[in-house]
Amino acid sequence: MASPALSFRLLNAHLQGPGDGRFHLKPVVGLLVALLAACGTRANQSAGSLVAVDDAGDTVRLAQPASRVVSLSPATTELVFAIGAGDRLVGRTRWCDFPEAARAVADVGDGIPPNIESVLARRPDLVLLYRSPQNSDAAERFRAAGAAVLQLDFDHLEDVSRIARLLGPLVGHPAQGDSLATAFDAELARLRLPSDDRGAPTVLLLAWDQPPMAIGAGSFQSEILTLAGGRNVFADITTPSATVSIEAIAARDPSLILVSDSGIPGFARRPEWNVIRAVRERRFVHLATPAFGRPSPRAPALVRELRSLLAERRP
Amino acid sequence: MTAARWPWLLGLTLVALAAGLSLGATRIAPGAVWAGLSDPAAGAAPIIRELRLPRVLLGFLVGGSLAVSGAVLQALVRNPLADPYVLGLSGGATLGAVIAISAGLTSPWAVPFAAFAGAMATLLLVYRLSLVAGRRLDSHVLLLAGVVVSAFTMALVTAILMLVDATRLQNSFRWMLGGLWSASWITVRMFAVYGIVPLGVLLLNGRSLDLLALGEEQARHLGSDPERVKRVAYLATGFLTAVAVATSGAIGFVGLLVPHAIRRIWGPLHTALLPSVFLAGGGFLVLADALARSIAPPVELPVGVVTALVGVPLFAILLKRRLA
Best of B48, B300, B305 to disrupt the A interface by mutation (most A CBs within 10 Å)? Predict the structure, then answer.
């Protein structure tokens, strides 16, 4: 896993907040950019002043903030809208369903891997890609066609503020990007509980039932659960999710099972699942919101919702 | 090595059953395993009786059936590369399962039932295509029909997967890998009810298959009706594979490798080959599944990965030894 907090910093000097001193770029480039930026003002950004390094380690240069952005992941689409740059989006994936206004943006199909032709038909000057081996070829082609490309690791809650800060200037909303990030981090910090988790309800985050798949510590969903005061029974799985046996679930003996569908899930009617105590006792919690499917600025609200759901089910 | 066939196979079966009951995501001491088996009130009883025992039994039945189907089909189409899926049944089963999953059917029986329906529809389609001029079942046409129908169903599966929700897509792929995670007394009973007749038919037709292996002309001279044998064998393997795929997805390598391994060790005569292949296939799959469950707990590996990782090197050794 890359360390996302470090790998992607914007070098526009007057935008850097306090404590934001970790540069990855070569010092010469950094100095040059700082000098250029110092000459301009916020209202009048000089050419070449926007430089960023994405999570693939590629340097992105923009003469001015992008005005035609194609976002190829639901998480970045939501974030671009959240920092007030939704009007600059000219393309999104078919999975981008939030906010409502995103549906009005042209649909270019899948995000991993994208359809090169339908993305380029939108004549983007900036393409936001989820970083994945399946997308590296597409990134090369977009770049060859003259668009700037950002490949982003958008997997954890901390990525929301990190990417908001980096994206803000590139889409002409540096202040909003910054304030969203600050507010998001502050809210998460307020929500963080004392580290003592004795008495925390043990929860199974069930991603799928045929075969049984559990969410592991590598997923932001596990982070949301922890913030809400629950303990993931499969926190020892470091990947986002993994296939586990019913026996392993029974042995971990979760006190609650978090599922996305409402009602008693179908698998609860199968005899083998009833070896699990929480299934026998029908101890299910439903978190139906689609925001649970991606790291998003809505995470703090989600944490509060889940916290009250867990409190309701406390014995 | 050519002697002592049955002690070896019974030994393998017993070792496999013991390993399947003793190994798993949780560590249970041999004494506690026995207590869980014999006493419903023992602490380990739910895990042993409701999870491991049905899983071991289903694994044994599925592994044995896939191996027997593979052995029969290899003889039927006279092609060493034949396995139970050569008839395109796994493609049909996958299509059924994917339709059920992407339609969001929540009933616990929707997926196995849809997979069974898909496999049976494919079986009949391939059968119809292979009846040359509606009379003779041609082995070569059978192979071709299986391949093209398989390609067609997999194309449909891909098309559906491209059009449904991303998480469902990913999860459908996991179903296709196959596995024994759905084992319960219900699936064991389902297998017993639907699988026992085709399995019995195949095991009892060993002699007819031996005659067929001599060539259709020869078989006819020796008083066998090759056309009838082929049809019965085809429908029985198809039905058996459909039941196996419906309960556990498309588990690979058992149906291909086990018959070859047994033939290399004990020779090709079907009367003894088929029961041996059943025991060896069952034991092999139960052992592979025990490894898949216990090698990296709590994560469970797809059993198909283990059957290939263990089966292929074993088979390579057998190939070498015979040639040397």
Answer: B300
What are the beta bridge partners of residue A286? Answer: A259
Sign of CA dihedral A53, A56, A62, A65: negative
**pLDDT confidence of residue B2:** 52
Torsion angle, alpha carbons of A98, A99, A102, A103, to 10 = 70
CA distance A96 to A72: 9
At B109-122, the pLDDT tens digits run 788 888 889 988 99
Count the helix, strand and coil residues of chain A and give each as a percent rounded to the nearest 5.
40, 15, 45
To which H or E segment does residue A151 belong?
strand A148-152
Q: Which of A211, A234, A275 sits opposite B298 (nearest CB)?
A: A234
Residues of A with CB under 8 A from a CB of B: 95, 110, 207-208, 210-214, 234, 236-237, 242-248, 250-252, 261, 265-267, 269-272, 274-275, 293
Q: What topology is assigned to A202-312 in CATH?
A: Rossmann fold (3.40.50)
The count of C-alpha atoms lying within 13 angstroms of the C-alpha of A295, restricted to the half-sphere facing its C-beta, is 23
- CATH 3.40.50.1980 residue spans of chain A: 55-188, 202-312
Put simply, the answer to whether A245 touches B25 (Cβ < 8 Å) is: yes
> In this structure, are residues A72 and A128 in contact, taking their beta carbons and an 8 Å threshold?
yes
Its pTM surpasses 0.90: no
Please give the class, per CATH, of domain B5-323: mainly alpha
Q: Give percent of chain A above pLDDT 90.
A: 55
Q: Rounded mean pLDDT of chain A?
A: 82
Give the residue carrying structure tokens 């309960």.
B247
Amino acid at residue number A166 = L
Tell me the pLDDT band of B167, cut-offs 50, 70 and 90: low
Q: State in Å, rounded, how far the first CA of chain A is from the last one.
A: 38
ipTM of the complex: 0.75
Spell out which residues of chain B touch residue A234, defining contact as CB-CB under 8 Å.
Answer: 298
Q: Which residues of B touch A271 (CB under 8 A)?
A: 50, 184-186
What mean pLDDT do residues A260-275 have?
81
For chain B, the structural domain boundaries read: 5-323
Residues of A in contact with B52 (CB under 8 A): 247
B171·A213 Cβ contact <8 A: yes
Contact (CB, 8 A) for B270 and B207: yes
Burial class (CB in 10 A: 0-12, 13-18, 19+), B4: exposed
Does residue A252 surpass a pLDDT of 90? yes
Helix (H, G, I), strand (E, B) or coil at B136: strand
pLDDT exceeds 50 at position B309: yes
Instruction: Tell me the chain A residues in contact with residue B26 when contact means C-beta distances shorter than 8 Å.
Output: 247-248, 250-251
Q: Testing the interface with A: which of B172, B184, B294 to mutate, by most A Cβ within 10 A?
A: B184
Contact A210 B24 (CB under 8 A): no
| Residues in chain B closer than 8 A to A114 (CB atoms) | none
The candidate with the shortest Cα–Cα distance to A285, out of A227, A213, A201, is A201
Indicate yes or no: CB of B300 within 8 angstroms of CB of A245. yes
By Cβ distance, the residue of A234, A252, A271 closest to B184 is A271
Q: Which residues pair with A203 in a beta bridge?
A: A232, A256
Taken in order B196, B199, B204, B205, the sign of the CA dihedral is: positive
Residue that has been written with the tokens 């989820």 in this structure: A130
CATH number of A55-188: 3.40.50.1980
Q: Is the pLDDT of residue A292 over 70?
A: yes
